# Entry
Amino acid sequence: MIGRAPRIEWVWSRVWPARPLDPALLTSALTRLAADPSSPTVVLETRADADGITWLLGTPAEHVRWVQRTLRDLLPGITIMAADAASRAPVESAVALQATPGVLGLGQPPLEVTTALLSALGAHLSAGEVMVLQIVLGPRIAGRIARGPVADPAQPIGSLLARGVMPAPEPVQRAITERIALHGFRVSLRIAATASTTERRRRLILGIFGALGRARATGVRLSLTAQRPAAITEPRLPRRWRLNLTPDELTGLLAWPLGEHDLPGIPPLHPRQLLLARTPTPEGRDIGETALPGSGIRVGVNAADALMHQVLLGPTGSGKSNVLLLQIAADIRAGRPLLVIDPKQQLIDDILDHAVGEDRIDDVVIISLADPHVPGFNPLDAGDRDPDVVVDSLLAVFKVVFADGWGPRTEDIFLASLLTLVRAGQAIGTPFTLVDLPRLLTEEPFRLRLIGHVAGDPTLAGFWATYGELSPAAQAAMIAAPLNKLRRYLMRPAVRRMLGQAEPVFRLRDIFRDNKIVLVPLNEGLIGPVTAQLVGSLLVGEAWNATQERASEDRPTDRPGFVVVDECQRFVNLPTSFGDALSQSRSYGVGWILAHQSRAQLPAELRESIDTNARSKMFFRLESSKDASDAAKLTHGHLAAEDFQQLPRHTAYARIVTGGESSGWTMIATLPPPPPTGLADRIRAASRDRYGSNETPVPSPNPTAPRRSSVSSAGTPPSPAVGRKRRQKKSERTSEAEQAEGGQE
# Structure
């Protein structure tokens, strides 16, 4: 080249080659560029500093889109993003490589060359030190057929002068003939370094030069020529191209991570570091950042996309709860309604410590069975709802929780009893409670007053007529199994306190209408796992009923709410397919965020429903090989089981819905929790004062003379401190009881 080369306006991009990277695939991509004489000059850089190794692509401004599109087409999975200025710090020393004789090329296996280069680039570098391997792909060289004998490139000058041109030995002729038949590039290969001393820079440069020696073919001599450092920082085309290289020779010289094995100086192959195909728009619901070094893209699910539901999978301690906390905090800040069911208590404590601000203290309802002033929950309070729908929800829960010994007779008794209590409650205007169910089956006067309200239903009337004809002993034998199951829970004072409140201050069905934040810590250490399952399942069933009631709202999706259920397999027991429930919930403006520890915990139907309908997925480190294998299958080949098994803590693979479309799988590092607010004690006190029970229970009301009552007798001593009724003296309570009994007679 004669004269000064024109200045090129370079656009720099950062490149993350997909791994594992087949050398043949990279060679094919380079061949595509070499075969097109109109393709532009391209700069490929590998840089190393104290933070690690990065790959950069320099393209003339007018050719950026073409080059990037071509590489993405030819190298599936490659990620290319704009590079910031800091990624190309200036260098202080630079050299250019020359190989002679050039006709022999650099013919060693690319994997060996790559390993040597990455090992050199992976040398320990101090802050501020930089190593650069820059390759400028210049004019293309078209492949051609050799005509006549090939001159011996190793012939000494004396021999040339004395004997003329001598043909090369047969093996050399064959190698040269094959090489010049390939498309190739005129190349400038430069090495540069930045360090505190000249000697240190020299050692760093010689380290890379030594690694390049692995590429040297027999008979080839490599040498270095000093370059201006500015030629690296702002690449200029050289006056003379010192190398002619083929695509297969370049494959190893790029120092890209070739092959299926771990390489020095770069992160291991597993867990595979993927970047998003579509950038999400979290809109305040950020959960993490892309873990690919240098990418730093915020990742999250905005409220509209979160209505397509989300599932989090990972064992205890993997980081699920922190991701739940981040989203819950964002929804609380945005004024959205929430139900959070936590089988332990840590998540609820974290929400109270970190997520609730001053403006939403009055919206928080804490339903804790460990609290003597627990807010009430009456699943038999149908209001204006269809009693059959309410009872179906309860039966679905009972069928799971009371699975041992559940049969047609038990289901028949529960169905008739629950329908009677719900319909009678609607008829007299005051709901009954689950605490009344044993009394319905064991106290004839009480039962006769109630079944009068359902006499119009021939099926129910027939059941109670048959039941009434039985002897007391036969009745006792018939109801022994269902009552034993129910009493197991109702004998617990904490359960009676909550389920025995006929008309509590707060109704869970109003959660979305009133924008409430309902927090349910089911601390199994205090109430037992079986009781936690019953209460949690009842609450989830009521949340589903509340979701369906949003069908009457105008544009419910404009005011989204969320149901967060940890250990979802224990509490999702609905009367309908959960897949159908998730599908309908979206149109009603309710998103479900579900978490669990292992896919083996999920029944097949529930697992299929979640896989299909929870569009956003986050999988943390999976210890189970079966879980890891199943998760890999869900990625359709993008990830392997080893990737899920080797994730660090607080790191996850995520596929996020953004704009209604999938972002593609990416690895994210989750964000830290929000800072503490210092409001936890105030929130607990406010919830207790506003929604908690605070009175002495009274006997169940006379069905013919309904009156408000917090707790109904269940044939067991009433528990203290329930409901919101005025405290009564013992004489007043005795008088009321006598009047009720007199009315029943």
